[in-house]
Write a structure and sequence with these properties.
CATH topology of the largest domain: UDP-N-acetylmuramoyl-L-alanine:D-glutamate ligase
Oligomer: single chain
Strand order of the largest sheet: 2-3-1-4-5-6-7-8-9
Length: about 425
């Protein structure tokens, strides 16, 4: 039944693309896809009719739903029947979007082939992959992951744009991977000064981040309110590249980015109990994203007024889907935590490698503890939190680290709109 429903919705999505011929912006990478999607949408929505992937819909079914403007019905057969009917009705929509901003995820070899048969991009964005990418467990190694994701730029025509993160060596190598020529125009972004769109003067504060976008001798300041960490700068830079490709100037881009809002679970700062602070990065975790989160914890702490500085606490859950790199990656994360934080609470058997390594690196063993579940970790945290503590919460989706945040947030009544995975399906799984 699921295969039949998926086939029908994919057929409807393909027919809609053929009928309305919207411009397609496709985004892939191991981290940062959803944030980049949100930043691109923020820049484009005042100029065009756009539609973006809902949540993290990046599979073939998810992408079909995104193209048709539908949401998942989970295990509700009637809901899926309604979706099919709505999909047919969408084929008559005279105000179908001019631009679609779609995420394309890769879990296994040939996944991108399947997605590209549904929607062929006009603009492709590759965010970041890193040396140990998430989902590597089903590939021979990181090189094979990169090769699969590179298909998103090989699919472009000569009129297309390949937007690549110059700071990520794996991504930037795609521009000349295997000696194959890319037909499309290449636009680079990053903190690297040679990037076409580069970031400078990066500053973080409890209010958000400030930086400048530099391109072709022009420098424009950007403020991202309530956004923390360089990962949001990368999202904004990618959005600036897309804006350039569709004819939006840098001043308009900067103004539009002021409306950008990070998604739940992507490095959001919120009030914790006992006047503490939580950096909620509970959506997912990979080695690259974990190191970026720890850098943000350090930078955020240093930006705070001295009287507001309490303890730095890291609550870290297993990183999944990294196969043979699991032990090494968790140990490296543990070492970094030992250099930054004073307290380390881990969740899951894989994260135990991190806590053990932190102690091996000199962290006080009385300040390091491992739990089996996120609920246990949250319950342990509640009585030990003190005023002005800065608490980073991060882990892979399967570990459900948002449950830790729910236990220690000052306003749990706002969980529905501030935390990730708060619909009924996730609450019962």
């Amino acid at each position: 039944m699921k295969n039949l429903i998926t086939s029908i919705l994919i057929w409807e999505a393909k027919w809609a693309l053929k009928r309305f011929t919207p411009r397609i912006i496709a985004i892939t990478g191991s981290v940062g896809k959803s944030s980049t999607k949100e930043a691109i949408a923020a820049v484009l929505e005042n100029k065009f009719r756009i539609r973006k992937s809902q949540k993290s819909y990046n599979s073939s079914l998810g992408m079909a739903l995104s193209i048709l403007g539908l949401t998942t019905a989970w295990k509700n057969p009637l809901g899926w029947l309604k979706n099919i009917v709505k999909g047919f009705l969408e084929l008559k929509n005279k105000k179908f979007p001019e631009i679609l901003v779609l995420e394309m995820g890769v879990d296994r070899p040939k996944d991108l082939d399947t997605l590209l048969k549904i929607a062929r991009p006009d603009i492709s964005v590759v965010t970041a992959i890193g040396k140990i990418p998430v989902h590597v467990e089903f590939f021979a190694g990181p090189e094979e992951v990169a090769k699969e994701k590179a298909k998103i730029i090989r699919a472009l025509s000569t009129q297309g744009y390949a937007i690549l993160n110059m700071d990520d060596d794996v991504v930037w190598d795609m521009s000349a991977q295997g000696g194959e020529k890319i037909n499309a125009h290449i636009i680079s972004y990053g903190f690297h000064q040679d990037a076409n769109f580069s970031a400078s003067n990066y500053k973080i504060s409890p209010e958000g981040i400030n930086f400048k976008i530099d391109t072709d001798g022009v420098s424009v300041p950007v403020t991202l309110k309530n956004a923390f960490g360089k990962q949001h700068v990368y999202a904004a830079l990618a959005a600036a590249c897309v804006a350039h490709a569709v004819g939006i100037n840098l001043i308009e881009t900067s103004e539009a980015l002021s409306l950008y809002k990070p998604l739940p679970g992507r490095m959001r700062l919120m009030d914790g109990i006992k006047e503490s602070y939580i950096l909620d990065d509970s959506y997912n975790a990979s080695p690259l994203a974990t190191h970026e989160a720890l850098d943000t914890l350090r930078d955020m702490y240093e930006s705070m007024a001295e009287e507001k500085r309490g303890r730095k606490i890291v609550v870290f859950g297993d990183m999944m889907e990294i196969g043979k790199f699991t032990i090494e990656a968790h140990k490296v994360a543990g070492k970094k935590v030992s250099e930054i934080a004073g307290y380390f609470i881990t969740v899951g058997p894989r994260a135990k490698f991190s806590s053990d390594e932190a102690v091996m690196c000199g962290m006080d063993k009385n300040h390091v503890i491992n739990f089996s579940t996120s609920q246990e970790a949250g319950e342990y945290l509640k009585p030990i939190i003190q005023k002005n503590d800065l608490i980073l919460v991060k882990g892979s989706q399967a570990i459900r680290m948002e449950k830790v945040v729910l236990e220690i947030m000052a306003h749990p009544e706002e969980a529905e709109k501030t935390l990730v995975r708060q619909d009924e399906y996730w609450k019962t799984h």
